[in-house]
Amino acid sequence: MNQELTDWVKETSIASGFTSVGITSAGDHNFSQDLNNFLSKNYHGEMSWLEDRKHWRSSPSTLWPEAKSIVMLAESYPSPKNNTTPDQGEISAYARGRDYHDVVKKRLKKLGRALIEKAGGEIKVFVDTAPVMEKPLAQAAGLGWQGKHGNLLSRELGNWFFIGSIFTTHSLIPDKPMTNHCGSCSSCVEACPTEAFDANGQLDPRKCISYLTIELAGPIPHELRKGMGNRIYGCDICLNACPWNKFEASNVDEKLWHREELISPNLKDLLQLDDASFRQMFSGSPIKRAGWERLMRNCLIAAGNSNDRSLLHIIEPYLSTESQTLAEAAQWAKDQLNG
Questions:
Q1: Which site from 33, 38, 173, 238 is most exposed, i.e. has the minimal number of CB atoms within 10 Å?
Q2: Helix axes 324-337, 292-304, angle to 10 degrees
Q3: Strand blocks (E) in 55-201
């Protein structure tokens, strides 16, 4: 294993703009048992790709047998610092800036090219969409630990950061895995308004607001709608509840800064978007991936929770739309506003 190259990778990672870096060996991991246990409970819901590609997720060596080391990197983003009112839509903090897939991947590729220029070899870079078990790998690399809310936590960064990875054919010196520092704290579990954690404290994504607003197609279960409040894309409640956020990073790429129009958008304005204006407003944003219909469904649920009867005339056109999902959500919203 190469100490000099390992040091260079870490120094260059920070110099290139990443907030934190850790390394783990590619051949030391097998996630089959935990993954199969998760899938056996049907916790993946409509996220069929988790099961379809589970053979690749089971271990990094299955995904790329030639890989010897994995460089795990953290990219910080701004936390939410505003309070929305019921007539405004709440968008998760990570989705208020540029699409992180593009921002983080561009930085990963630049770092990867520098590594090849420095020492040769081969690399593959991944951000979120690949069949990589990023969070357990990041914990193995010492980047942080998986909190009770399922997200990665760091004593230096809190939980406001993205994760990216560089698989490499170089043998780098691995870091020590990070131990869990949640202790007896259960703030995140207790804060969840849809009670998305099971009796063992494990997150059931099918009840999670992030899953409901982003991954779920079709109608949202009625029993979970009130708990959604005005959250129209993602949810930060369990993240916000974590005491470790007092160590939030301050050095954030300006591309990930919150766009003003996405901080507290009015439901009245959002519900008047058509597909073209939706695409224009959310150009370069991860929200665009969800599509117009899914966001309008979420906005209708939020409207129903708003107690703002001035939204009734905005909701009215959706009652006769061709989309059964939107028509049903509009009727629900109307019924809520009419008491």
A1: 33
A2: 20
A3: 69-76, 90-91, 123-126, 145-146, 152-153, 161-168
10 Å CB burial of residue 321 (0-12, 13-18, 19+) is: middle
Within 10 Å of residue 14's Cβ, how many Cβ atoms? 12
The closest alpha carbon to 54, from 36, 77, 28, 81, belongs to: 36
CB contact at 8 A, 222 and 332: yes
269 is catalytic: no
- Using CA atoms, how far apart are residues 214 and 211, in angstroms rounded to an integer? 5
**Given the residues 28, 87, 128, 269, the one annotated as active site:** 128
- Tell me the pairing of strands 161-168 and 69-76: antiparallel
Helix %, strand %, coil % of the chain (to 5): 45, 10, 40
pLDDT in tens, 185-226: 999 999 999 999 887 788 899 999 999 999 999 999 999 999
